[in-house]
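Response to reviewer comment R2.3. The reviewers asked that we include at least one raw input/output pair. We reproduce the pair for ABC-2 type transport system ATP-binding protein here without editing.
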Amino acid sequence: MTTSPNAPAIVIQGLTKTYASGLQALKPVDLTIAKGEIFALLGPNGAGKTTLISIVCGIVNPTTGSVLADGYDIQTQFREARTRIGLVPQELTTDAFETVLATVTFSRGLFSRAPNPAFIEKILRDLSLWDKKDNKIMTLSGGMKRRVMIAKALSHEPEILFLDEPTAGVDVELRRDMWALVRTLRDRGVTIILTTHYIEEAEEMADRVGVILKGELILVEDKTTLMKKLGRKTLTLNLIETLEAVPAELAEWNPTLIADGHELQYEFDANAEDTGVPSLIRRMEALGIGFKDLNTRQSSLEDIFVSLVHQSSSQEKAA
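Raw output as returned:
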């Protein structure tokens, strides 16, 4: 079977997972990921991120639904599909007594790839592991072991790479190296699906963002569209004199006092025709409330994520 160069990298349809205990880990998920895309999957612990990845990678069987990886069915064409996928799991699982070079070379062989020492060397150099190539895994730091897991996942030249919480518990230097590596891989056409707790990773790298909560994919959106659609701005006014409380005359703007009364904060929709900012400032002037400085801040992806989770929880309680 040959796949069209324009075909999606991943197609998930009606995917669910219910365990024998009755726990529904995944509600019906439909998702298409384009080739060369960086897709970030966000969600709290227990939301279903790892379950979803494990099914797509053929580690866990779904209850219902189907997954195509580069056009191959992960259940009926497992070998063809799995060859196209690289997985960096959360757990550091590798042979402690093997050397770095041996374990990465062995991983390539598992996928029936012909030996390619030059390619393995390049991966190890890219991940700052070449000088550790003869070290046993057991002698490495946690960050170095994480790099080895990434090298193993890349050893068979996959077209789709899953990174499940890849930088959890690692140092800032490795996180920066990871971001640089991900961009390099994307430039080569590799599709990357990233799960993370670190919102800044999604904000820094992702093309699209999915939010999963209690097994349900509650939102999938282009990152910039999401930021524009849901992002709000916060106006902070640094007051000349402190206030004990927000004056009743400002109630319609619903501002909040912070920094022990030294600052007044007002949230507004930057896309609205009337943001309320000019009228708020005029009212403050009329009341004799002066300020010496002001600044605005765009809502971050983290703000949006927290807002979405809060909305979902509120709707669940109301139901």
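Residues 68 and 77 are 9 Å apart (CA to CA). The chain has a mean pLDDT of 87. Further pairs are available on request from the corresponding author.
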